[in-house]
Amino acid sequence: MKINVSKALWGVAALLGAITGFLALEAHYQQTHFSCQNKITVFNQNGALVSDNAFEFEGQLGKYSATGKFSRRDRDEQTVNNTFGFYFWNVDKKLVIVANEESHHSPAYDRIPLFLPDVIFHRDMAIALTLIKINPEAYLFLRNDAPVFFCKKTG
Predict the structure, then answer these.
(1) Quick check: 74 and 92 in contact, CB under 8 A?
(2) Using an 8 Å Cβ cutoff, are 122 and 137 in contact?
(3) CB 88, CB 57: distance < 8 Å
(4) Eight-class DSSP state of 2
(5) Closest residue by Cα to residue 95 from 123, 119, 121
């Protein structure tokens, strides 16, 4: 039995091309379909916010939710929560997040004298972050090359 070398080479090239295309699609899918969570503490001289946060990324749509406690020296601790949907895109190695609805947050957020990004509160506000996958189970979000938060993969 004779093997047609030319057809075999074309077959191998086609197979390698299909495998490469599949691996590229899988990598893109993993970058745009995942969820992660973290716990952050933000504070200044007047108070502190401790919050459990969750991010869900599904294609170009996402969801953010946070629950936590806000405390000030001169007031009782308050429970805070916040959720909003967003669109996201990868542009020039940056993750651009644009809120697609008004934030649904507890009134305590209005009194938090902390530096939280506008995207948390207002529709059509944006934030650009660098997303670095530091291992198979965790991501690091950077803003202007400064770490903003660490996020452990949950799905």
Answers:
(1) no
(2) no
(3) yes
(4) -
(5) 119
pLDDT truncated to tens, each residue of the chain (155 aa)?
677 778 878 888 888 888 887 777 776 666 667 888 988 888 877 778 888 989 898 888 999 888 888 887 777 888 888 888 888 888 887 888 888 876 666 666 655 655 566 666 666 678 888 888 888 888 888 888 888 888 898 86
Please give the single-letter amino acid code of residue 147: P
Helical H runs in the chain? 5-32
Task: Classify residue 155 by its DSSP letter.
Answer: -
- Enumerate the β-bridge partners of residue 39: 52
Around 43, how many Cα atoms within 13 Å sit in the side-chain half-sphere?
A: 10
Provide the β-strand partners of residue 113.
none
Other C-beta atoms lying within 10 Å of the C-beta of residue 67: 15
Spatial CA neighbour of 56 closest among 144, 145, 139, 118: 139
Antiparallel, parallel or unpaired: β 126-135 and 104-105: unpaired
